[in-house]
Design brief:
77% of the residues lie in helices and 0% in strands. α3 runs antiparallel to α11, α4 runs antiparallel to α8 and α14 packs antiparallel against α16. The longest helix is centred in the middle third of the chain and has 32 residues. The N terminus is likely disordered.
């Protein structure tokens, strides 16, 4: 006869299912755009540094908006804040679909970023719906929805690009469609998770003082700094990866989408099948140390990728794909990105990059849910949304700095340098974390 586990030991999947589905649909829209945005900007004469500034715009605006929206979700509930943030995302994608200049690309990311509390609010809803024993598993499933979105999003982007002759505007419209679906799901399926007692317990507004106060708290402060510095290293990796594969291996948007699919599948396996189990068996501290070390290996390995273009690389065709077709076509002369020569093509570069992508995906897959779980366990129930908002703010601040940092190194010192520097930052965190996080 099977032993029945106590309720507190089991995750209530029925309760969190709407949250997971909404995050998945939200991430479909986001993951469709992420691999394409650097290449989109390259059409309008953007250099690696300008591309880095564009990539920094969204997280910088999110850094301003997400903590405030996190506090508002503690006051007024998760649902209204989630809907408001999704409407902003939808508006940003609509504008991206109309964008025919670099300025409109920037404006679309500003609008999306200011309202971008989708994920932090969903994480707060998960925290409302779980206890200390099941929270890491719940947050891990949010991460698995992330991974699932990153599997299907690039596939959808690949299909849309193939069907429309590299029409990036069509990809933006597709992202807007999924954003609209997420608004409908939140409006009609999601049920408020915030209880009246926790909603009334918090009366203060978010200020920078609240962030400084959180940083001074012994357990939470280091976790917030860990979130910040690991995302400095990993954020640049994520946001400039497609530019790296373009300039190092001659891979266009469709090729790079395939790598995002592989990474997404691996993240689903890790976050959906192992994060909850590892958290219960080994603890969140162990997960953090594992994530930092494997991510360091992945980034340093990426920096060492041999500069050998993929066997099917043809420089002229890649330039034409960047320029686009029909009404959206730009002059090839406007493209400021240097592509590799096709004389020495082969398999070594792509096989190496695929191999080192697995430890990078493992680290990226376990770190954020583990760190956020430790933060929620160190916080009072009434401040969980605010603390996750601050965590999201630190994450967004790092994402704003990372592409500027990476883009500068990329342009002035070469493509491998920023990834090597990111790996060395993570190695330093790997040394510090075991001493700073109590057992």
């Amino acid at each position: 006869m099977d032993t029945v586990q106590p309720t507190s030991e089991k995750l209530d999947f029925k309760r969190i299912l709407p949250i997971i589905v909404i995050v998945f649909v939200d991430l479909l829209g986001l993951s469709i755009i992420i691999p394409l945005l650097p290449l989109y900007a390259a059409r309008f004469s953007a250099t690696p540094l300008v591309i880095g500034i564009l990539q920094a715009t969204y997280p910088l605006m999110q850094f301003i908006g997400a903590p405030l929206l996190g506090r508002l979700s503690d006051r007024f509930g998760r649902k209204p804040v989630l809907v408001a943030s999704q409407i902003g995302t939808f508006a940003g994608f609509i504008l991206l679909g109309f964008a025919n200049t670099l300025g409109l690309l920037f404006l679309s990311r500003i609008i999306d970023g200011l309202s971008g509390a989708n994920i932090s609010t969903a994480q707060a809803a998960i925290a409302d719906s779980t206890n200390e024993r099941t929270r890491t598993q719940g947050l891990g499933l949010v991460g698995a929805a992330f991974g699932l979105g990153f599997v299907f999003g690039p596939v959808i982007a690949f299909v849309v690009l193939a069907a429309t002759g590299q029409n990036y505007q069509a990809v933006a419209w597709t992202a807007a469609f999924f954003s609209f679906v997420s608004i409908l799901l939140t409006s009609f399926w999601f049920r408020e998770t915030l209880t009246s007692d926790s909603a009334s317990a918090l009366k203060r507004k978010f200020t920078l003082g609240a962030m400084l106060e959180a940083l001074r708290r012994p357990q939470i402060g280091f976790l917030l700094l860990l979130m910040f510095f690991y995302q400095i290293a990993f954020g640049g990796y994520e946001q400039l990866f497609s530019l790296f594969t373009l300039t190092r291996l001659g891979m266009d948007a469709r090729d790079t989408s395939g790598l995002f699919v592989l990474a997404g599948i691996f993240i689903i396996i890790v976050q959906g099948g192992f994060v909850g189990r590892w958290s219960k068996q080994k603890g969140d501290r162990w997960l953090v140390i594992l994530g930092v070390s494997t991510l360091a290996i992945g980034l340093i390995g990426t920096a060492l990728t041999p500069a050998i273009p993929v066997p099917w690389y043809e420089k002229g065709k890649v330039m034409e794909s960047l320029a686009g077709e029909g009404a959206v076509r730009v002059s090839v002369q406007n493209i400021q990105i240097q592509l590799p020569e096709q004389a020495a093509r082969g398999w070594l570069g792509i096989l190496w990059l695929v191999t080192v992508s697995f430890p990078a995906a493992l680290g990226g897959g376990v770190l954020q849910p583990a760190v956020n779980s430790l933060i929620t366990k160190s916080s009072d129930k009434s401040e969980v949304g605010g603390m996750l908002g601050i965590s999201s703010g630190m994450y967004s601040a790092a994402n704003a700095i990372a592409p500027l940092f990476y883009g500068s190194l990329f342009q002035w010192l070469g493509a491998p340098v920023p990834f090597m520097v990111g790996g060395l930052i993570l190695l330093a965190l790997w040394v510090i974390a075991p001493r700073a996080i109590p057992k």
